[in-house]
Design goal:
RNA binding; single chain; Methane Monooxygenase Hydroxylase, Chain G, domain 1; 9 helices; mainly alpha
Amino acid sequence: ECVLEVFGDIETCLKTEYNLKEKIREILDQLEQHSRRISTVLQTIHQPVDINTTKSEVCTQVKVVFTDVRICYSNLSSLVEKQDYFKFCNLWQGVTTRFSFYLSLVCFLECGKLANRQDIADQLGLNIDKKHGFHLELDDYLCGLLLLASELARFAVNCVTAGDFQTPLAISKFVHELESGFRLLNLKNDFLRKKYDGLKYESKKIEQVVYDIKIRGLNSKLEA
């Protein structure tokens, strides 16, 4: 082959990859829009009129949006070949982490429990096994849990402001167990290690909220 033929083939490959990235970005734009919608809805838990009613309504609204999110991930999965997954996955890693966080928060609001990786993947329409190509990566799931701890620390403070002294106690127990779980992990990812340092700070912040509730005798109202 002559030089021009070689570079002609390269140009064709580059154009194909560029067109694929453009199609991926179109879907990512939709995912970002859905992420903003969900974030806006979830922020209402921090300004509740009625804590329980607000939580129920928020979870219902968020789940409706995730119907559209699953469609977007299905389209992405169809677009990206299995062997090309790791070539492009950094493009949607950030938004996937946020969706994992949102779903973990909804799970806590609904039943006070930790959503496992399979639960999150199912609600996104993804797999957790790499052999399927498109999947929910473990780092994205773990990072979502660390974002959850930060959000719950803020929620604990706002619950007290709203006169809800029960939820901060549940949050404290949950985040303490979450922190204990992370202690078992030997985190290799630098970003995750830094976020884990933040978890320890958030845990102490929540402990202070619980301490204030108890020292002021506000927890006695729960027992009365």
